[in-house]
Amino acid sequence: MVSAELRYTYKVRRKLASGKWKDYWRIRKGEFDAALPGQPGDPQFFERYAEILAQLAKTEEAEQSPRHSFNWLCEQYLESAEFKALSEPTQKDYRDTIDRRLKPVLGPERYDSIRRATIKAVRDKHAAQPRTAHKIKQMVSRLYSWADENEFVDSGFNPAAGIRKLKAKVTPITIWSDEEVDLFLAACEPFMRTPVLLALYTGQRREDLVQMQWSDYQKGVIRVRQNKTGEPLDIPCHPVLRAHLDKIKTKFGGAIVRTQAGKPMNAGMLSSALNRAVAAIDGMPHRSWHGLRYASAGRLEAAGCTVVQISSIIGHRTYEMAMKYARQRRDAQDAMRVLEKSA
After folding, report:
1. d(Cα 239, Cα 179) in Å, to the nearest integer?
2. Which of 132, 272, 253, 256 has the alpha carbon at shortest distance from 204?
3. Contact in structure between 122 and 114 (CB atoms under 8 Å)
4. What is the pLDDT of residues 201-221, one digit of tens each?
5. Number of domains, the chain
6. Are residues 28 and 82 in the same domain?
7. From CA 186, how far away is CA 179, in angstroms rounded?
């Protein structure tokens, strides 16, 4: 296949029954692909070529969103330098919210005529999912802040401004106890020991666990760039974790966390694997990866680490929540010991 100077054209060389070779010309743009008659220079070639170019231009114009539509505003933002400067996970999250939650509902509307009541109505459709509802409000607010900066709307115009966050029922995260950790590690399939030990002794999220590579583990230190924050971390490995990693390390490299069949995992696969593993163990209550992050924070505090040291690994907000649940458990245990002594 050889590219031609004519836009979107290419040629395919085929062997005829006579043994000779012949060039056939085609035009392609995106999913459109069609044959062109004759050869460049032939009248019928250029007539058909010009006809197809006109059709493509008309289709492209029809596919463009009207200048004042909400769709147009979204498209401009997604092509902006501000959007492209965001981390890859944040870009994916924003694009997903725009494409799935906003454009299907607000797309044809004039973006400079949308009002607060409209945004509240879109948000309230997801009231059963408070996090999604709040994300919709936040995304609209970001879009209009960007539009304001670029003078696409009147200064200060933001239909999401002043919309309060829906209150959500708080589901407490249960920290894994030492007994639960021991029970799981003793009964789980060998491939699940690795991510659980990594989570317990590094305090990282499931998204970070699946991205850890053997090349990130050197001389007892594991290097992590957090998926959510982009922060690079050098985490010294606990002796238990170090012994485990040294035992299973292979010369082939690649992802540390793998399935039972030896294939790399993504975050969703890892969650499903943990749910299955927990359910298969007698006497093991349901526990989550986030509960292991909290358990990691609790162990670091029990070992004498400072708030700054713990926060540098798991983040300050996670530390505060972990300590809240960990202290409640310790206070309850202390109260029971006092009660037993008084009996």
Report:
1. 19
2. 256
3. no
4. 888 889 989 999 999 998 888
5. 3
6. no
7. 11
The 217-218 sheet, strands edge to edge = 217-218, 221-225, 232-236
* pLDDT on residue 1: 39
Residues 276, 197 share a domain: yes
For tokens 């966050």, the residue is: 165
Range 257-293 burial, b when 16+ CB lie within 10 A, else e: bbeeeeeebebeebeebbeebbeeeeeeeebbbbbbb
Q: Please check whether residue 79 lies inside any domain of the structure.
A: yes
Query: Of all residues in the chain, what percent are helix, strand and coil, respectively (each to 5)?
Result: 55, 10, 35
Residue 323 maps to a domain? no
User: What local confidence, expressed as pLDDT, does residue 60 receive?
Assistant: 67
The residue type of 102 is L
Q: Which residue is associated with the tokens 């699946």? A: 210
- Per residue in 235-246, pLDDT (tens digit) is 888 899 999 999
Give me the CATH number covering residue 122.
1.10.150
pLDDT higher than 60, residue 273: yes
CATH no. for residue 251?
A: 1.10.443.10
Q: pTM value?
A: 0.56
Long-range own/partner contacts, residues 228-236 (CB < 8 A, 24 or more apart): 228/89, 229/315, 230/87, 233/312, 233/313, 235/202, 235/313
Verify that 291 and 219 share a domain, yes or no: yes
Could you give the CA distance from residue 107 to residue 178 in angstroms, rounded to a whole number? 52
Instruction: Specify the amino acid at residue 215.
Output: S
Cα separation of 89 and 266, whole Å?
A: 13
Q: Say if CB 136 and CB 126 are below 8 A apart.
A: yes
Output the CA torsion sign for 266, 270, 272, 273: positive
Question: Which position has the token pair 């010309």?
Answer: 25
Q: Is 54 part of any domain?
A: yes
Is residue 206 located within the same domain as residue 274? Answer: yes
Residue ranges making up the domain that contains 270: 178-296
Q: For residue 123, give every residue at least 6 positions away whose Cβ sits within 8 Å of its Cβ, in sequence order, or none.
A: 133, 134, 136, 137, 163, 166
